[in-house]
Amino acid sequence: MTVTIYHNPACGTSRNTLAMIRASGEEPVVIEYLKTPPSRERLLELITAMGITPRELLREKGTPYAELGLADPKWSDDQLIDFMLSHPILINRPIVETPKGTRLCRPSEAVLPLLDNPVREFVKEDGEKVAYMPRSGSVEIQVRPRRK
Question: Which terminus of the chain has fewer CB atoms gathered within 10 Å of its CB, N or C?
Fold first, then answer.
């Protein structure tokens, strides 16, 4: 199975998603999209494959979203794409693409249904425990108490 992740190593959700992919036995193609942003055509392909709008892919936190006034509904989809291409940090992440689909994996466990052999249990960086039941598609999250 070919798995591709559009990844930002500074993002905990992205790191957890990548770790879940690897724990599931896959070695994905890792695209650090801040270093190698997608082309307009590729970004549009990803948005279409996810079934979302460009606005739904915009990231607000830690980006120039507010200073650019991107909350204003006046911006067209094409203009929002232009902003994402000019400022790739505006592209929300991680995006994972597999033969089973393409998804913005927020939360990180959203990647599990996209994998052939998803990990059944995983502990995230922050101590949250993820338990995945592939047949039912259910995901259970448990917060582990932190040790002092």
Answer: C
